[in-house]
Amino acid sequence: MGPAHAACALLSLAPLLVLGVPPIWTQPEQVHLSYPGESGSMVVTWTTFNKTESYVEYSLMGGRLFEMTAKGEASLFVDSGKEKRKMFIHRVILTGLKPAATYVYHCGSAEGWSDIFFFTALNNSTSFSPRFALYGDLGNENPQSLARLQKETQQGMYDVILHIGDFAYDMHEDNARIGDEFMRQIQSIAAYVPYMTCPGNHEATYNFSNYRNRFSMPGNTESLWYSWNLGSAHIISLSTEVYFYLEFGLELLFKQYEWLMKDLEEANKPENRAVRPWIITMGHRPMYCSDDDQDDCTTFDSYVRRGRNDTKPSAPGLEDLFYLYGVDVELWAHEHTYERLWPVYGDKVSSSPHSCIYSLCSGSVTEMCVFLFKVFNGSKEQPYLNPKAPVHIITGSAGCRERTDRFNPNPKEWSAFRSTDYGYTRMQVVNATHLYLEQVSDDQYGKVIDSIWVVKEKHGYSSWF
Ligand SMILES: *[C@@H]1O[C@H](CO)[C@@H](O)[C@H](O)[C@H]1NC(C)=O
Ligand SMILES: *[C@@H]1O[C@H](CO)[C@@H](O)[C@H](O)[C@H]1NC(C)=O
Ligand SMILES: *[C@@H]1O[C@H](CO)[C@@H](O)[C@H](O)[C@H]1NC(C)=O
Ligand SMILES: *[C@@H]1O[C@H](CO)[C@@H](O)[C@H](O)[C@H]1NC(C)=O
Ligand SMILES: *[C@@H]1O[C@H](CO)[C@@H](O)[C@H](O)[C@H]1NC(C)=O
Ligand SMILES: *[C@@H]1O[C@H](CO)[C@@H](O)[C@H](O)[C@H]1NC(C)=O
Ligand SMILES: *[C@@H]1O[C@H](CO)[C@@H](O)[C@H](O)[C@H]1NC(C)=O
Ligand SMILES: [Fe+2]
């Protein structure tokens, strides 16, 4: 064999020589928390690529480290991409936590433990004043607000994070490696405070399977819609995507609608609304927006707002439902901008006698058509003091590869404040009457560029009159 042939023989062996055996993936990663809705509990969720058992070892901060252990389960998630990548999603529910106490924990198994993290069990008092950061549309690439959110969360500025849809851009891409990397990126937020989510359009691929498998929200809808309570607030998370991806099942739209009605009915029982007067919704695609991109929210006949009549049976929208049950604040994203609205209903800032409001409750219809002219602002000087319609906030500018959107130059009269800066929103539900919202601009190094107090001496449908 000449030297050339010898080299060829070596080369053809090379793949075998360098490949060796693949690594063992038993090390926990992508650690994140969520609140399962029961006082004194928390769910820890993480990923390994090889199967291991699922344990969380934890203890009170300052106590003997890891003196308690909780066991959970792992479920196999097979991504639907070409490689059919497999991963194990581990879920452990911690119960019996002392409200407002701080715990340290790690998660994993005898085959490997995560880093050590800490969290504060949510205070379960109805007079607790929770502080939220909220945003949508945060991606793996160009996640402009991420570092500021990581730092502020670790400084203890927030009790809960609300991510209002559109993660990673997109979790399924590169055989779900984008999802993995995004979940690693948010670990330094989500391993410290509950990270509460709803699905957005960027999760739709393979019927939302990356979203449904990776998160662990309350209820048994694979994190698609659910509600929970904190302080004086009842918070409802929903999927606006059921109005758009009919191929995954029109029945989901009706299931969610029925569930929303029941949930709102329950939340409005006098004994419940008395202790949790604030009803706050979060969903990805807004009913209203004044961007120039022709999205659903730019049209009068927004599917989310007005429903669809091209389905059989036709599908009810959400605006009337939320109005009739006295929803106070509606949080949205999807538009890569921030926009605050004056109290709005029926695409208007006031109602006239011609715009009778139809009601689910028989008897109240006539009453609702009687009034003459009514401005939804609480008053001209203080529009958010006892507003006569829900308050909408659109906050989808956390940062992603699609950059920010643009506004149309002539917004409708309900548009109160707009910004195309990257950023996110802070919210504090201070007490039964006072709720505070402010917008942080990351472009302006954390400057607060907008803020309002929503003050309501009364809540519920009757507070509109
Ligand atoms: C670990 O996971 C990889 C990737 O799914 C797989 O190919 C390998 O067989 C697994 N190893 C063990 C020991 O389970
Ligand atoms: C709050 O937590 C304490 C301690 O676990 C418990 O005794 C109490 O019943 C809880 N209150 C509510 C309203 O859940
Ligand atoms: C929970 O919050 C309430 C209201 O702020 C406060 O009075 C109470 O002390 C807190 N609970 C604990 C255990 O810190
Ligand atoms: C999509 O997922 C939802 C939630 O699991 C399920 O109810 C629905 O049947 C699925 N749709 C299709 C077409 O598989
Ligand atoms: C159906 O909805 C469209 C807008 O989405 C509207 O233009 C049309 O008038 C509606 N048709 C009926 C019969 O209500
Ligand atoms: C609502 O209040 C704002 C702020 O005072 C004001 O600019 C706007 O014109 C008011 N809208 C109506 C319909 O009065
Ligand atoms: C609610 O919070 C506001 C703002 O901090 C405060 O002015 C008001 O007195 C509080 N109300 C009650 C009943 O504590
Ligand atoms: Fe979106």
UniProtKB/TrEMBL annotation:
Say which domain of life the source belongs to.
Answer: Eukaryota
User: Does the UniProt entry include the keyword Hydrolase?
Assistant: yes
> What InterPro entries does its record include?
Calcineurin-like_PHP, Metallo-depent_PP-like, MPP_PAP, PAPs_C, PAPs_N, Purple_acid_Pase-like_N
Per its record, the protein catalyses: a phosphate monoester + H2O = an alcohol + phosphate
Q: Which enzyme type, at the first EC level?
A: hydrolase
- Keyword set for this entry? Glycoprotein, Hydrolase, Signal
Q: Which residues form the Calcineurin-like phosphoesterase domain?
A: 131-338
Which residues belong to the signal peptide in this entry? 1-20
Purple acid phosphatase N-terminal domain ranges (all copies) = 28-120
Which parts of the sequence belong to the Purple acid phosphatase C-terminal domain?
389-451
Instruction: Give the Gene Ontology MF terms in alphabetical order.
Output: acid phosphatase activity; metal ion binding
Q: Does the keyword Signal apply?
A: yes
E.C. number:
3.1.3.2
Q: Which PANTHER family match?
A: ACID PHOSPHATASE TYPE 7, PURPLE ACID PHOSPHATASE
Q: What family does this chain come from, according to its entry? A: Belongs to the metallophosphoesterase superfamily. Purple acid phosphatase family.
Q: What is this protein called?
A: Purple acid phosphatase
Its source organism is Xyrichtys novacula (Pearly razorfish)
